Amino acid sequence: MIENDAGEGTGSRSGREVRQGQFPFAVLTDKSVVMAEFRTSLESQGPGWGYAEVTEWTLTHHGHPFRVTAENEKAAYLPISERRTHGSRKPLKARPSGPCEVVTYYYYKAHHYGSISGDVTLAFDPVNMTVDVRADFDIDLD
């Protein structure tokens, strides 16, 4: 029997950790490194739909997490490819942009409804420990 996060023998696979780890995500202009920490778990997709792997991301600098924001300081989704959890990419090089340091990369995610793809720009503010997310996505529905 598989246990849930509470450790109770419910037979549910929801919440079961599949993998976790961290890797260098970006190198800032002062040569310090932004680390990406991830936790992938199985989450129920509803009755009869089975389970899907869901990855939660945290970006850290010197061990402290960045607060992720979007337009109007709203909480934001952090689009990072799950392929990176396998260490398949080199760290991105940040470039200065005003008080922030910026990285841009291409994002693609396929799922049973279609795909999402486009450019993502992250603006790191290491003084205020925020990372602002800007994304220009195309959604292709199957």
What's the structural blueprint in terms of helices and strands?
Blueprint lengths: L16 E11 L5 E12 L6 E11 L2 E2 L1 E3 L22 E2 L1 E3 L2 E12 L2 E12 L4 E12 L1
Parallel strand pairs: 1-6, 5-10
Antiparallel strand pairs: 1-2, 2-3, 3-4, 7-8, 8-9, 9-10
Task: Give keywords.
10 strands, disordered N terminus, mainly beta, 142 residues, 5-stranded mixed β-sheet, single chain
Structural features, described:
0% of the residues lie in helices and 56% in strands. By secondary structure, the protein is mainly β. It has a domain at 24-33 and 63-141. The strands form two sheets. It has a five-stranded mixed sheet with strand order 4-3-2-1-6, with no helix packed on it. The chain has a five-stranded mixed sheet with strand order 5-10-9-8-7, with no helix packed on it.
Give the class from helix and strand content and strand pairing: mainly beta
Strand arrangement across the biggest beta sheet: 4-3-2-1-6
Topology, number of strands: 10
- H/E order of the elements? EEEEEEEEEE
Note the main sheet.
5 strands, mixed
Integer average pLDDT: 83
Taking Cα atoms only, what radius of gyration do you get, to the nearest Å? 17 Å
- Count the DSSP helices: 0
Distance between the termini: 36 Å
> Which consecutive residue ranges, at least 5 long each, have pLDDT under 50?
1-9
Q: What is the helical fraction, as a range of percent?
A: under 10%
Strand content: over 45%
Q: Tell me, briefly, the overall form.
A: globular
